[in-house]
Amino acid sequence: MSKSKKKPVIIKDIAQAEEAVKRLHQIGLKREYWSQMEARDIQKVKDKWDARRAEGDEPALIKEQKELEAALETYAGASRAKWDAKSLKLRYGTLSFHAGQPAVKTIRSIAKNFEVALARLIALPWSKPYIRTVQEINKDAILDSRKVWEKKPGGMPLYDSQLKEAGLKVVQEEKFRVTTTAEKEIRERLEARKQ
Questions:
Q1: Is there a contact between 181 and 25 (Cβ–Cβ < 8 Å)?
Q2: In this predicted model, what pLDDT tens digit does every residue of 23-70 receive, in sequence order?
Q3: In sequence order, what are the beta bridge partners of 96?
Q4: pLDDT one-digit tens code per residue, 95-105
Q5: Distances (CA, A) of 157 to 30, 53, 145, 170
Q6: Within this chain, do residues 58 and 38 fall inside the same structural domain, yes or no?
Q7: R_g (Cα) of the chain, nearest Å
Q8: Global pTM?
Q9: Name one GO biological process term (predicted).
Q10: Residues 170, 143 contacting (CB under 8 angstroms)
Q11: Same domain, yes or no: 121 and 152
């Protein structure tokens, strides 16, 4: 049994275009309504649980948890040499130390920040493979130069001919879009219900 292919929608005149936009509007209304109701229901649940937590002892539990973790870390650091392995297995959990990700940091007594460290590194004969030089086209600056020139006569324009020399051009393509009033209508209806 073969599946029949659905015929593509073809719009031939303004009346059909009006009907298509009307249907998109109806679809948009329904989908936006669902989204708004979902968001409302989720917020109700969050508010309910936030109130329960605030009334309950969650803040005290969080504080106690942090205190216990700090005390366990202190204990583990002091007793680590007595462990038979890299971790200490307990009935309800395990204490262990894991290596974190390696990171490059400055030695404050030599270089107070990375700019100072970079200047020192550049001066060293073996530093070349450890210095990154990124050269890339600053597209934002190209676009901004056009905006500045349009707004401020006498600004420094970047002409199309100059961009062409570099093999570049600025384009602004049109993109088709259908806008219905569904989202706005749903919002207005919800606001009216609240009042």
A1: yes
A2: 999 998 899 889 989 999 999 999 999 888 888 888 888 899 999 999
A3: 87
A4: 998 888 888 88
A5: 48, 59, 6, 13
A6: yes
A7: 32
A8: 0.45
A9: DNA protection
A10: yes
A11: no
Same domain, 45 and 68: yes
Coil, helix or strand for 174?
A: coil
Residues 74 and 122 in one domain: no
148: pLDDT strictly greater than 70: no
* Pair of tokens at residue 77: 């650091």
Three-state secondary structure readout of 131-175: CCCCCCCCHHHHHHHHHHHHHCCCCCCCCHHHHHHCCCCCCCCCC
Whole-angstrom distance, CA of residue 116 vs CA of residue 135: 22
From residue 162, how far is each of 9, 88, 128, 153, 168 by CA, in Å? 46, 68, 34, 19, 9
Please name the amino acid found at residue 40: R
Instruction: Name the residue with tokens 């009307």.
Output: 22
Nearest to 169 by CA among 135, 146, 136: 146
Residue type, position 122, single letter: I
Number of structural domains in the chain: 3
In angstroms, the Cα distances linking 86 to 71, 83, 90, 96, 193 are 19, 7, 13, 6, 62
CA angle 113, 116, 118 (to 5 degrees): 105
Range of the domain at 147: 137-169
Considering the domain boundaries, does residue 178 fall inside one? no
Distance (Å, whole) CA 26 – CA 29: 5
Cβ count near 180 (within 10 Å):
17
Query: What are the beta bridge partners of residue 95?
Result: 88
